[in-house]
Amino acid sequence: MKFFEKPKIYKFRYGILTASVSFVVLFWDQILKLITDGFEITVINGFFWISSTHNTGAAYGIFSGQTIMLITVSTIMILILLVYNYFKSSKSIFYCISLGLILGGAIGNLLDRIFLGYVRDFIKFSFFNFNFNIADACLTIGVVLFIVYLIFFDNVFKSKKTKGE
Questions:
Q1: Residue 36 and residue 59: Cα distance in Å, rounded?
Q2: pLDDT tens digit string along 92-126?
Q3: Mind listing the pLDDT tens digit for each residue in 118-165?
Q4: What is the SS3 string spanning the chain?
Q5: CB-based contacts of 57: which residues, under 8 Å, 6+ apart?
Q6: Residues annotated catalytic, as ranges
């Protein structure tokens, strides 16, 4: 082992962090979906509701009724992320959190589609014309963080300067 090379235990810790974030997202997503299913509650009048809906499509109801296609695409994307993560040599806490949010959200909605045939949405704000859930929110935040990571922190996308420049 080279002097400055991180021992393999660090790679294991990054995997534990990613899995932990995914598990926390998945756990709270499924618990809150179970608790709120069938409820209509005004939390802040005219602004925020718990309003249970069943979505057979993707975001904004697109691909409505295309459950098999959505299960297939979700599964492929999860596998691509897992393979990418496996072969990624350098990782950071930022990277692991963003990946954990994406995987937890994707798996949460995938489980709904597989076992129920639809996704349970329950969060409704007056300024959105749709309902969403914890998985959707974490997936969106995770993708934004992952893009930020790729653009600003990942060596693959940073410009490589040669000697003399």
A1: 20
A2: 889 999 999 999 999 999 999 999 999 999 999 98
A3: 999 999 998 888 889 999 999 999 999 999 998 988 876 665 554 454
A4: CCCCCCCHHHHHHHHHHHHHHHHHHHHHHHHHHHHHCCCEEEEECCCEEEEEEEECCCHHHCCCCCHHHHHHHHHHHHHHHHHHHHHCCCCCHHHHHHHHHHHHHHHHHHHHHHHHCCEEEEEEECCCCCEECHHHHHHHHHHHHHHHHHHHCCCCCCCCCCCCC
A5: 63, 64, 65, 66, 70
A6: 121, 136
How large a percentage of the chain has pLDDT more than 90? 56
Q: Which amino acid is at 161?
A: K
Confidence of residue 3 (pLDDT cuts 50, 70, 90): very low
Q: Which tokens belong to 43?
A: 């939390």
Q: How many CB atoms lie within 10 A of CB 20?
A: 14
Query: How is the chain split into domains, by residue range?
Result: 8-152
